[in-house]
Amino acid sequence: MDVYRNLIGGDLVPAADGRTLDSVNPATGEVWARVPASGRADAEAAVAAARAAFPRWSALPALARGQALRRVARVFAEHAEELARIETTDNGRILRDTLHKDLPGMTVLWELAAGQVLDAVRGDTVILGPDTLGLTRREPYGVVVGVIPWNSPISTFSAKAAHALAAGNTVIVKPAEQASASVLRLGELLADVLPPGVLNIVGGLGEEVGEALVRHRDVAKISLTGSTETGRAITRASADALKPLTFELGGKSPNIVFADADLDAATEGVTVNSIYTGNAGQVCVAGSRILIQRPIWEEMLARIGAAAAGITLADPLDPRTTMGPIVSAGQYERVRSYLELAAKEGTDLVFGGRTGADVVPALPGGYWVEPTLYATTDNSLRVCQEEIFGPVAVALPFDTEEEALAIANDSPYGLAAGLWTRDLGRAHRFVRDLQAGNVWVNTFRQMPPGLPFGGVKDSGYGHDSVLSYTREKTAILNTRS
């Protein structure tokens, strides 16, 4: 049984009251590790440590901060396989993704953040008159809290911590209680890499340590990747102190296939790279609404079914596995409830729908849901409007560009959208008119480091970048002696 600890002020410590939470391997349903069940005392200690470390860290020359971040990047590279296996065991995300996509990508992200440190100290100069200058300067906020989700802990940890640290802030990361182990292990590896208190990691329940952190008056900024419900809760909890917020929240992303598309590429793009494989649909940008132009409706449904039939559900640590389990018992029951709802709402089951031991008999205790597709003409159904966060998609037909755009935008969410067409003019029109923070044309789920990632509507606002972790100050200087 692995036991993980918090990182607070450079020290690896259990929760102040000694409480722990069980981490369950979702492929087996068995407890494999314990993590701290931190509370208010741990939040207070983490904020105090981060606040004490802030003056020295923010005063470091930018290039010195960059050197420190490069040391972090080396830790990611040197411990990639260990971290990937921990994350896969903890949340079920398949090893071929955690090891060959996530860890290499995050090594690059930390290197890129190290190279952007000078952006955080650049300002503008405006000549207002012969004896008057206007200056702007960028300054870090101070103590930043990053609240991260269970579906991709290492990646979201990096997106928040690397950019906030590059800008000169000190950081507290609160990982999701369902999957904290990989980030807490990172705390162990980084305890001696960064100065004490610059990076702190505190595990526990959101309603306990998470709420204590976001309400704390010495926390200057909060960045959340998580559900829209959590975003609303953090907004309420932080309102008294009027903290700046960055939210990357839920999605119900449309993936739109026109009749002129390369159907081989589109089939892979709406199945393998969108909703089913990798993380079993537990991705905020998952293309969970597949919009198909009527002339190719039947053909695309058959193609998607054939592609889904080739997906391998098995032990996520097996490199041959292409789709893993649902992360937890609670999320598993949530997904199952939507399967029941789809039947009640009168959708047509195209394929899938089985759960549990029927899906992977070799691992009967795991939280398994097979790739599932429903079809309907009614985009107002709850299964079309609400984020399921599992390997469950809904196909909807359309005739014209205008109808496709209307269906795509008829959603409370606006995180991402995909478009499959050979028509360049149509591609530009949809990039312009789709209500989404990220639009992919003839590809899907491409999120390279260095490009902004965020949403609109109930999918949040802002994005994690070096400049987003700074605020601008204006100064007017009269130079007459």
Automatic annotation (TrEMBL):
UniProt cross-references to InterPro entries, sorted A to Z: Ald_DH/histidinol_DH, Ald_DH_C, Ald_DH_CS_GLU, Ald_DH_N, Aldehyde_DH_dom
Domain Aldehyde dehydrogenase stretches: 16-469
Family: Belongs to the aldehyde dehydrogenase family.
PANTHER family, per database record: ALDEHYDE DEHYDROGENASE-RELATED
Keyword tRNA-binding attached: no
A Gene Ontology molecular function term of the record: aldehyde dehydrogenase (NAD+) activity
Active site: 248
Annotated Pfam families: Aldedh
The protein, known as: Aldehyde dehydrogenase (NAD+)
Assigned keywords, A-Z: Oxidoreductase
EC id: 1.2.1.3
Keyword Oxidoreductase among UniProt keywords: yes
Species per Swiss-Prot/TrEMBL record: Thermocatellispora tengchongensis
